[in-house]
From TrEMBL:
<dbReference type="GO" id="GO:0004719">
    <property type="term" value="F:protein-L-isoaspartate (D-aspartate) O-methyltransferase activity"/>
</dbReference>
<dbReference type="InterPro" id="IPR029063">
    <property type="entry name" value="SAM-dependent_MTases_sf"/>
</dbReference>
<feature type="region of interest" description="Disordered">
    <location>
        <begin position="1"/>
        <end position="101"/>
    </location>
</feature>
<protein>
    <recommendedName>
        <fullName>Protein-L-isoaspartate O-methyltransferase</fullName>
        <ecNumber>2.1.1.77</ecNumber>
    </recommendedName>
</protein>
<comment type="similarity">
    <text>Belongs to the methyltransferase superfamily. L-isoaspartyl/D-aspartyl protein methyltransferase family.</text>
</comment>
<keyword id="KW-0949">S-adenosyl-L-methionine</keyword>
<comment type="function">
    <text>Catalyzes the methyl esterification of L-isoaspartyl residues in peptides and proteins that result from spontaneous decomposition of normal L-aspartyl and L-asparaginyl residues. It plays a role in the repair and/or degradation of damaged proteins.</text>
</comment>
<keyword id="KW-0963">Cytoplasm</keyword>
<feature type="compositionally biased region" description="Polar residues">
    <location>
        <begin position="74"/>
        <end position="100"/>
    </location>
</feature>
<dbReference type="GO" id="GO:0032259">
    <property type="term" value="P:methylation"/>
</dbReference>
<keyword id="KW-0489">Methyltransferase</keyword>
<dbReference type="GO" id="GO:0030091">
    <property type="term" value="P:protein repair"/>
</dbReference>
<dbReference type="InterPro" id="IPR000682">
    <property type="entry name" value="PCMT"/>
</dbReference>
<feature type="compositionally biased region" description="Polar residues">
    <location>
        <begin position="29"/>
        <end position="43"/>
    </location>
</feature>
<dbReference type="Pfam" id="PF01135">
    <property type="entry name" value="PCMT"/>
</dbReference>
<dbReference type="GO" id="GO:0005737">
    <property type="term" value="C:cytoplasm"/>
</dbReference>
<feature type="active site">
    <location>
        <position position="158"/>
    </location>
</feature>
């Protein structure tokens, strides 16, 4: 059903007992609660800034300055067996392996379908990428809950619903060749995008998160994903145009450079606003023509200029 199965040196599906059965029925509900819980979660877990600690021992990839091809010849480790305890519980739980996380992931995908995500290519991608690999060990028990979770540095991994919804809208049933993501964070959405796009470029402005994403993605060996450290507001003119652009952080407006780097016929999706945010879909219809559609409310971390 998707093109994903031949993309990886190590298929992600080999990491668990993924079932190929899933209902494609979708029941669209206009009353789905979509706002992200990002801010609350960040506040609650700010004390847990473990990602900083996790990053401390990371080594720099000397082969590229700001660009990283995620594929690595190293053996898979983290995705194969995650040992953890249930978040929020002082009781040690049984060890979480990829195998016993496949069922919660499938249940998550089923909920996405019930919430109105209809694109089976997107649902398959969500079913394939092990979200728990991108989440700090103390929170792994919540990996397949439909919530954003803290990843350190006051940032969050996006809520699965919003990831699926935005990709579905950007894709619009098309085969995507070149896609740009602004805001790599921990790398989860980039991994999902890589399932259904020929080439994915993702930019992160926080060096330690760029490093964290590299680390998280290494074991998945995704050959068609390139991570960049930089200010995503400038886009990546050297590889433009993009037939899809997706922003994982909300600005007051969509940076002009990103509009210019959108291919004619391409789609950009972004949260826009400060406290009140909405998803905006921009379609480039001509050399100097773009159309804007305002979609549902959402809640993202802010888009900020510069690098740190
Ligand atoms: N894509 C992530 C979500 C990350 S949260 C996921 O898979 O869940 C949004 C990210 O956008 C943060 O890491 C933040 O640092 C980053 N960000 C904000 N402004 C940015 C900019 N101008 N350029 C690049 N990244 C930016």
């Amino acid at each position: 059903m998707t093109a994903k199965s031949h993309k990886f040196p190590l298929p992600l599906s080999s990491l668990d007992n993924k079932s190929t059965h899933r209902t494609t029925k979708s029941h669209h509900s206009a009353t789905v609660a979509t706002p992200q819980t990002a801010t609350q979660n960040v506040r609650q877990h700010v004390a847990r800034q473990q990602a900083v600690k996790n990053n401390a021992g990371l080594s720099e990839d000397k082969s590229a300055k700001n660009t990283v091809v995620v594929a690595s010849p190293r053996k898979s480790t983290s995705a194969q067996a995650v040992q953890t305890t249930q978040a929020g519980s002082s009781q040690p739980s049984k060890p979480m392996s990829s195998a016993n996380l496949a069922a919660p992931r499938r249940a998550m995908v089923q909920r996405l379908s019930q919430a109105g995500v209809q694109d089976s290519v997107v649902l398959d991608a969500m079913d394939t990428v092990p979200r728990h690999v991108f989440i700090e060990s103390g929170l792994v028990g919540q990996a397949y809950v439909d919530a954003s979770l803290p990843i350190g540095h006051h940032q969050t991994i996006s809520q699965p619903y919003i990831v699926a919804r935005m990709i579905e809208i950007m894709r619009n049933g098309r085969k995507l060749r070149n896609v740009l993501e602004i805001g790599t964070g921990c790398g989860y959405q980039a991994a999902v995008l890589a399932q259904l796009c020929e080439n994915v470029y993702s930019i992160e402005r926080i060096k330690l998160l760029h490093e964290l994403a590299k680390k998280n993605l290494r074991s998945l060996r995704i050959a068609n994903l390139r991570l960049h450290y930089g200010d995503g507001m400038h886009g990546l003119p050297q590889v433009a145009p993009f037939d899809g652009v997706i922003l994982a952080a909300a600005g007051m407006q969509i940076p002009d450079a990103l509009l210019q780097q959108l291919a004619i016929g391409g789609r950009l999706i972004a949260p826009v606003g400060e406290r009140q945010q909405v998803l905006q879909l921009i379609e480039r219809t001509g050399n100097a023509n773009w159309t804007k559609t305002v979609l549902e409310q959402c809640h993202f971390v802010p888009l900020r200029p510069g690098i740190i």
